[in-house]
Amino acid sequence: MGDRKQAGDTEFQAFVIGRWPRLMRTAFLLTGEQHAAEDLVQSTLEQAYVAWRKVASADDPEAYVRRVMINAHSRRYRRKLREFLAPKDDSGLTHEIADTGDHISRADDRHTLLKALAKLPPRQREAVVLRYWEDLTETQAAEAMGCSVGAVKSNAAKGIAKLRAVPGLAETVTHGGRK
Boundaries of each RNA polymerase sigma-70 region domain copy (predicted)? Predict the structure, then answer.
């Protein structure tokens, strides 16, 4: 039994090392704050570790963990929704560790975009993050969010429309961050 546990621990460690940057980016885009993102990823990985045998045997362990993270995010911020959507300051929005492979990290108006993203309602933010930053299909996003494909389409469209209405973001949203 000890060898099997050690193999599971090694497999989990490799999963965490390989997925940490992407999980952090998704969590940051969902929460809008570096520390909240770190807490969200940490609590998600704690849950994944406890159920690692089930997670590892899933068709797509990363999708499974992403779903756990989205559920944890939804539960955590449901009560504090108004306070969360209108942070008193935007200092937390500027501390993301840049990912050089991330198109958003190269956008000139990154600060404006992150502020606007943080003001979207949670479901719209989730849909926009999963569809456009995580590049998931509508079906994958629906599975991650626990809703229908139509709900993903609707929330993503509404979120993008709100982002387009922000002065200075229309070109970024229309051209996917490329100038």
Answer: 21-81
